[in-house]
Specification:
This protein has 122 residues and is of the alpha+beta class. The chain has one domain (6-92): His-Me finger endonuclease fold, CATH 3.40.1800. Helices cover 35% and strands 14% of the residues. It has helices at residues 6-22, 67-92, and strands at residues 45-49, 61-66, 111-113, 119-121. It is rod-shaped. The chain starts with 5 loop residues before the first helix and ends with a strand. The structure holds zinc ion. Residues 31, 33-34, 36, 65-66, 69 line the site of zinc ion (ZN).
Length: 122
């Protein structure tokens, strides 16, 4: 993801200030995730994408968020969703490879261990 330039960050911050003023929420921009104001002089902040649709799924930039809020949202929502999508897709296209041989005696192994101690094909 390309990093925003200082000018682009300034424009984004000021646009969010305007949005907050228009909504009657004060002069400071509002965090996209927690709803609290962001003071650009004291709080670290990130550009934030649609909370329901992460960037890797094509989500648009919808505002700015506190750095802590954005990182927590990423760790709890976006990254697990990314890996889940990847696993489901791999299973769907048949790309999943078993990690090792199946345990002896399970149905996947094709062998049955009888009470008498002999091994027979299922
Ligand atoms: Zn926040």
């Amino acid at each position: 993801m390309p990093r925003l330039s200082s000018t682009a960050r300034e424009k984004l911050y000021l646009a969010e200030c305007d949005k907050a003023r228009a909504a009657g929420l004060g002069d400071l921009p509002i965090c996209n995730l927690c709803g609290a104001p962001i003071d650009g002089r004291r709080d670290r902040w990130h550009e934030s994408h649609d909370p329901a649709i992460p960037r890797h799924m094509g989500g648009d930039v919808t505002g700015i968020a506190h750095e802590a809020c954005n990182l927590r949202h990423n760790n709890e929502h976006d990254t697990p969703l990314y890996w889940k999508i990847k696993r489901v897709r791999q299973r769907f296209i048949g790309a999943r490879v078993p990690k090792s041989r199946p345990m002896a005696g399970t149905k996947a192994s094709g062998w049955k261990h009888k009470m008498s101690g002999e091994w027979v094909r299922r």
